[in-house]
Amino acid sequence: MIKFFRHLRHQFLKENNISKYLLYAIGEILLVVIGILIALQINNWNQNRINSIRESLLLREINIEFKFNKEELESTIRTYVHIREQCNYLLKSLPVIRSEMNKDSLSRALSEIRNLGTADLSMGSISALINTSSFEFISNTELRSLLIQWDDLISDYFEREGQAINYTRQTIIPYLAKRIPRPYIEGINDDRVDLSFMNSIEFENLIIDRRGDASTLLNVVEDEEDKIRKALDRIIFLTNGNKERQK
What we know:
247 residues
């Protein structure tokens, strides 16, 4: 093909046919331009294919991670719901009369209120997106927006969870450790234990504060908006591999 066009060019020059030579030159330029455009189109197609594969891998990773986060969050929420219930049980049981108390229920409640419930949410995929500036690979604008906002959305929950954990570690656990040996199911019957501490104003206030921490935390996921759970469900939905849902 190259030899053919070269032969034409030489022929037109030999014949001194300027008009034909100009037409040939224009045609040659057009062919070059068309070749460049085709090459660019092929390159764009290859790049789009690579980006599509990369997006699919990202979506799969995000989907797995946020399904884990949903399970982890729901498990922690159930823990704090139980803590709140046990606090209510203890407050209703006051004043405690040793001869009338339900030993199993009381020991269970004391054990539960010292539970350090924490949602160990995975942030690996979002951290990777931030560190590599890869958000542009996610074509769905709603999903991209949810992922960008996720850190801010969950920060309020983590702040309240941290307050609840700190109060338990610094106040509840040391207080009970001085008064009842573990396990509580046996410790309550220990001759060294004087359960009159449970009828003190201090103990009552501790339980009220512990219930307050649990309720404050749960308010984040129990209000009418419930933005965290909605965001979790939406992210999982948009990354489930169904192309129609990713549009």
